[in-house]
Structures are given as C-alpha cells and as structure tokens.
Amino acid sequence: MRNMGKSFPRAIGYALLLAIPAFVLSGCSDDQAAGGKQVSITSVTPASASAGDSVTVEGKGFNSDPAKNLVAFSATGYSNPAASRVAVPVEATRSSLRVEVPEGSFTGGVRVETPFPIGGGPFDVVAPRIPSNSLDFSVRLLLGDVAKIFYSDSEYDLPVSTGQVGEEYILILFDSATFPDRNMTSNYTVDNDTPCSSAPAADGPGAGVDSSPDSDRIDFMLLAGAGEVTRSFERKKREEVLGLLRGGTVNIDVDNTPPTMPQPSAMEPQAREFYVFSNFNGSTIDPDDFTLVTADLKYEGDHTLLYVDQITHSSCITDSEAYALGQEFEEHIYPTNTASFGSESDINHDGKVAILLTPIVNELTPQGGASTGHIAGFFLPGDLLPTYVPTGASNGMEIYYSMVPDPDGIYGNYYDKERALEVIRGVIAHEFQHIIMFNYRVLIFGNGYSGAYMAELWVDEGLAHIAEDLNNHDESNIRRANMFFNDPGNVTLIHGGDDLEERGASFLFFRYLGDRFGDGIFRDIVQTKKTGTDNIEHVTGCGFKELFADWAATMYFENRGVTPVDPKYAYTSLDLAADFDPLRVRPGNICGSPLTGEVKSYGPDFILMEFTGVDVYDLNISSALFGSMNAILIRIQ
C-alpha cells in the first residue's frame, strides 16, 4: 500500500477487499489471472468431458485476454476453494472461452471468474475476483485418470459420473486434520443413495483386495534402526536436545565445562576411549546412562575413523571386515551423502567422521527383542554440543555408533554375520545423514544454540532412509515399506517417524519426490530453515495435499501394475509390483449399507468400488467431528 498521507483511501480499499471474497488457487499451478468485469455464462459445450478435453464456455463479460479469466470446475460447490480445480482458457473473446478440463476434476459444476475492475490507483494489492453463475458439468474419468478433492471438512457429497456398465474405481480417503495425539484415528463413513453393486471383480487390476492385513507376510528379523523396543528412541533424543537448547529444561545436573578427551596413543593399534549411551530407559544427555569404552582404530581415511570396541569377541567381526566397512564409508557413502545432502560439521577440527562398532549397542535391545526390531545404530546430538552436555555424555566430535554382528548371541541376540554387516552398511549411511542434517539445522541455522530449525522427525528419518537407498542398501527400506503397505490408512506420514511402518511411509514419500523432481530436492530440503510440510511446499512449489494425493495415487498405480495417464504418477527408481508386498485395498461394498473405516492423519485408505450402472452416483463422505476428509478417485476398469 502506497503512503497517501491520509487513511481514508486505505480504509476504502480494505472495505472493498473484505466485501468481495478472493478466489484461492489450490494445487500445484502457476496459473493466475488479473483484470475483468462481472460475467455470466449461458452454456458449456459439451456438458460432459474428460481431463484434457477442450470445452467451450459461452456467456458475456469475459476478458479477451485469456490470462485474465479463470474457469473453475467444482465437485461440491464453491464455498471452499480447495474443492475446485481451475484452468486458464487457451482462447478468449468477450463472449466465448475455450478451456481444457484440468487434471483432477470431479463431476459437479463450472463457472468463470474475472477480477474486480479496481484498476490502478493507490492499491498495491491483488484484485479480488467476481464469479459468474454456475452450470452443471460432468467429468468422465478414463482408464488411468485421477480426480482429487481437498475439501477439509467433516462431510460432503461427492458425485461420480460413470459412462458404461462395470466401471471400477479406487477411492482413496485421507484425513488432513491435525490431532493432538499422533496415534488418534478419525472414523469415516461412505454412503450412496444411487442403486449399485460393488462386488470386486474376480480378476483385473483390483483383484486381491484384502479386508485385513496379513501379518505373516512380514519377516521382522534385522529391521534396522527401530521396532517395538525402539519406537520412542529417536523422539526421546530429539526432545531431550530441544529441551537442552531451550534452556536446560531436562532435569539433570549439567556441567558445561568442555570435556577433555583422550587422544589416540602413539602405539599401534591406535586406541582411544569413548562415552557410549548404554541405558535404553535412561537419558541421552545424562552421564549416568553412559559407559566408558576403549576402542581400537581399524581404518583411517581422509574423512573416516572406524573403531571397534576392545570387548568385541573375535567371532563378531574381523579386522578385514572392519577395514572394509571403513573403506566403504570413505569411498562410497561419504561422497554420496555429501553430494546428496550437504556437508558435515567439524567441531573438533580433525576433518573426519568417527564410526564406533560396539556391543554396547547390541545390549540396548533386550534379549529376544530382535524378533520385533532392534537398535542397530544411532547418532547422538549431544556429541556435537559438548558445551551444553555434561562431561561423560558427549564425545565432542562427529561420531555415530553401530552394533556388531553376533552370530553366537554373546551379547543377548543372535545376528547372522553376513546379514548384520549389510544392516551396518545401511546404518552407516543412515546415521551420517543425521549428522549432516544436524549441522545445517542446529549448528549453522541455529548458530549452535537454537533448535528452532530442527527438522521434524518424519522428515529427518525419511531422508536418512533415502541415504540408505542412495547407497544401495534397501533391504530394510523394503521391509519397512511392506509394513506400511499392509495397513496404509493406519500409518501417519507427517506426525510420526518413530515406528517402522511410519519410516516405510516416509521413505516411499521422499523417494517419490526424488523421482518426480530430481534427487537434488533432498539437498534442498536439508538446506533450508523451513520445517515440516512448509519445507516440502517451498522446495516443490506444490501444495502438500496435492503432493500427498499424487503420491497415494502413484503407490496404487505402481504396486498394482495399472498404467496412469499422467507420467507424474510413477516411480522411476523403485519397482513396487516386483519388489514389495501388495498394497492393502479394501472391498467397497456401499450398496446395502454404508462403508465405515478409520484413518490416521495423513494415512491413505484404499477402497475398490464397482458401479454396474450408467449414472451419476452421489457418495456422501463423512467423518467424526473436526475431521478433514479428502478424496482421490482412480478409474481402473
């Protein structure tokens, strides 16, 4: 707003803007409009079309500049702009517009919107838009088409227009509400007033629907990094360091004197002492929960120091195996991670990252607990905050910790050496990404004393699993993803990060972003001060709901072998149909009685539906109070 010297023109300007609601664009589009007059429409030809088809809108008051008109296709009315799809005409006259039906549209209505003719003057604001009347419009989904609606309400009617007998669809429902407890679920109901039959077909892309997950499909052994014994570990670490950075809210005595650590001896093999977290139920910043160990240096490179705890039994790992792990980090993992995410810190000025293999990590998992997941390794933020963390709880260096193979079960659980070494390789890649993320988010952006820019857990863990993927260690990623595929609606994407299935979801989501936008996006996500979904929207330029819907549709297409119309619904680096378990799809019998279910926030539920008639089926979708249900519809038959 220019300074006009008086408040009167400004007040008039604000009054005009409040009186006329602005139309808000949704989705992932750069389309904008400006300039125009009150408009009305008289016809839409044809009145039924598919995404990408051209339709002609006749009326009056249009702007002859195509960019100064918007055509809005709405499924549920225009009270919520997020429920509409908008397009800029490709041709325009004062009385006619030619426009292509935008991807994602549902059956409903169509109207034209033009800007309010404020003109020039003292207003440095975007002019509000004036809507025309609305006419009915039917969207026919072709095979592989996707329709999306983001209504963010607890109830709405969703019209589905069929063109032939026996059409099949996948209905994907997700709730975008934020719950106070990440484990809360939202109940939903789908009802239909139009006569139909929805029995699943015997074959075809919708075959094999499941009414419940098949737990026998999952082999839980050697699921690296989390499980029932560890599901709160990463969150505990994060909350403790955040409390420390906020001013020492963790209730322990903190000695802020920087620790003086022993240096490598002049004798071979070089050895030094390390403080290792050793009490799973304890605090990661309390010295009483750490054990002092002595470890031997087994590999040294330009960027790498790899140590093995001296108490490690000879049957667990040989010197040559330890050397090979150090060499892999030096020659492959270090250059891959730094190129993909950014640089690590160097708080002790040695230019190296230390890796410590110790049975202390093995013993954090209770005996017999490895059958449901185990702690395979970890990074502790306190190691990079030696002036905040008391002596005895920080090594004051870039370091992370890993289990050792234990084929004889000496330290409580049996870990086959060959498989354990593969898990450790993945852990090394995974934990190094955490060190890089912490460098940018706390040491650089937070100046070493603020946690304001710390990545949300689901983002930090998701990218750490991407680090495993980029370094070709995907066995554990596939296992986690399979747990998600067994019951996707019961897995939150953005409010978790602890559970194995949540990590599987975040891995699949970030792998999709990399395939769609290029792997450079991982570095962009790390190296920004933005957090959570704001970060994702910032680096992609797309609304988060739109991305979530695209990802959900992609998982169905790829996992069930259905070919989409739009190439954005595809993974290029994963073969979901060949390498992963089948995605759970529920049968959608809503003819005799309503279909009910429940989902966690940002957890997609997949429902197979078949319509036997040619009609417009009016689906009523409702959820518990305060729910924000959204829908995706895919034509598969």
Structure description:
The protein is an alpha+beta fold. The protein folds into three domains: 8-139, Immunoglobulin-like; 146-215 and 586-635, Sandwich (Jelly Rolls), CATH 2.60.120; 216-454, no CATH class. It is 25% helix and 23% strand. The protein has helices at residues 8-19, 233-245, 319-340, 359-362, 417-444, 457-470, 475-486, 500-517, 520-526, 532-540, 544-560, 576-579, and strands at residues 40-45, 48-49, 54-60, 70-74, 84-87, 91-92, 96-100, 108-115, 129-131, 135-139, 146-153, 155-161, 167-175, 185-192, 271-277, 290-300, 304-309, 353-357, 377-379, 399-402, 586-587, 595-600, 605-611, 616-623, 629-635. Strands 2, 4, 5, 8, 9 and 10 form a six-stranded mixed sheet that branches. The chain has a six-stranded mixed sheet with strand order 15-16-17-18-20-19. Helix 5 (417-444) crosses helix 6 (457-470) and helix 7 crosses helix 8. The longest helix has 28 residues, at 417-444.
* Rg (CA only): 28 Å
Rounded mean pLDDT is: 83
Shape descriptor reads elongated
Record field, number of beta strands:
25
Count of separate DSSP helical elements:
12
User: How many separate domains make up the residues?
Assistant: 3
DSSP strand content: 15-25%
**Based on helices, strands and strand pairing, what is the structural class?**
alpha+beta
Unreliably modeled segments: 1-27, 29-36, 120-124, 198-205, 211-229, 248-268
Distance between the termini: 54 Å
Level of helix content?
Answer: 25-40%
Query: Biggest sheet: strands, sense, closure?
Result: 6 strands, mixed
